[in-house]
Design a protein that fits this description.
Layout: E1 8-14, E2 17-22, H1 27-39, H2 41-50, H3 58-79, E3 91-95, H4 101-114, E4 123-126, H5 128-131, H6 138-150, E5 154-158, H7 172-185, E6 191-196, H8 198-204, E7 217-221, H9 226-239, E8 243-244, H10 246-261, H11 270-291, E9 301-302
Parallel strand pairs: 3-6, 3-7, 4-5, 5-6, 8-9
Antiparallel strand pairs: 1-2
Helix pairs in contact: 6-7, 9-10, 9-11
Length: about 300
């Protein structure tokens, strides 16, 4: 498309098409502005940089870029007289422990604020006790209050299915119904993220007929591969100024292979890796104290003997 969006006039609609006259006097300058505006490389780099330290998130980063691109195009559509649809960004996060659901939700709040999609970008994490009261009427009041606090930011509810565990007489279902109403009333004012284990979340979203359809983004956090878990292990060690020796990596791969072959339903993924590395650091310290004769390099190298199963 040629011309400056800011210097256009919508003439008329014909056969479903909108005819536009462009101000040719600003053609060269405006074409460059449009390219810069639509590509907006700086902002796209914000997304890449914000999530660069996370392993295996290419799919999620693409979703955030799509959200941002949609906002930019909506602004341009509005300037030329085309209708726009406000984005509803509520999300369901499904995944086993240690797959990064909480961490990613927290980073998402920051990124959406930097991209001017959220007005405040704060992050509120809630659980059943924060929403469900003990008396009639208390639950709706507590739920509405926490949504009010979250306006302009992200409200994250982990293990959301716990709201439905008390049965039909439990006030948890009232919290669910109130959340649905608040999502409708404040559809574009905050992002609600419900998170939990995959199977439990699938059962949870059918409890209220209007619940599942109000979440346009269903994000599945897959278990990490062994290769990705090794990358996470090296990253955790590096953050603590340690490194894994080649033999330590081989042993860790073997341990992970044995662990993942068990097909545990809720394998702890990155949490398991973090616990392994933290334990290896303690064992490394004990080993050096016993050896006494060690070099400066020995202070930062985790060896095979330091890696044990948990």
């Amino acid at each position: 498309m040629r011309g400056d969006f800011l210097n256009t006039q919508v003439l008329h609609k014909q056969n479903g098409k909108i005819n536009i006259i462009f101000n040719e006097q600003h053609q060269s300058k405006s074409e460059k502005q449009n390219v810069d505006y639509l590509n907006n490389n700086k902002q796209l780099k914000v997304i890449d940089e914000q999530f660069s330290s996370f392993v295996g998130l290419a799919y999620f980063k693409n979703i955030i870029k799509e959200i941002y691109a949609t906002r930019l195009i909506n602004e341009r559509r509005a300037q030329v007289g085309l209708s726009i649809n406000k984005q509803v960004l509520h999300m369901l996060f499904k995944g086993n422990p240690g797959t990064g659901k909480t961490t990613i939700a927290r980073e998402l709040a920051k990124v959406l604020f930097q991209l001017n999609i959220l007005s405040k970008g704060h992050f509120i994490e809630a659980e059943r006790a924060d929403l469900v009261g003990e008396y009639i009427g208390q639950t709706a009041q507590k739920t509405r209050a926490i949504v009010q606090k979250a306006l302009g930011g992200v409200l994250f509810i982990d293990e959301a299915y716990s709201l439905a565990r008390g049965g039909h007489k439990d006030f948890g279902r009232e919290a669910i119904d109130t959340l649905v109403k608040q999502m409708e009333d404040h559809a574009n004012d905050f992002v609600l993220i419900l998170a939990g284990y995959p199977d439990e979340m699938e059962q949870f979203v059918v409890l209220n007929p209007g619940l599942k359809s109000r979440f346009p983004f269903h994000i599945h956090f897959k278990d990490y591969t062994i290769k990705e878990l090794i990358e996470i292990a090296e990253q955790i060690a590096s953050e603590r100024e340690y490194e894994l020796s080649p033999c330590a990596i081989v042993k860790l791969k073997k341990l992970l292979h044995e662990k993942t072959m068990d097909y545990l339903p809720h394998f702890a993924n990155a949490r398991y890796i973090r616990n392994i590395i933290e334990q290896s650091i303690r064992l490394h310290a004990i080993r050096l104290l016993h050896d006494q004769d060690f070099t400066i390099r020995d202070l930062s190298v985790i060896k095979e003997i330091d890696i044990t199963a948990i």
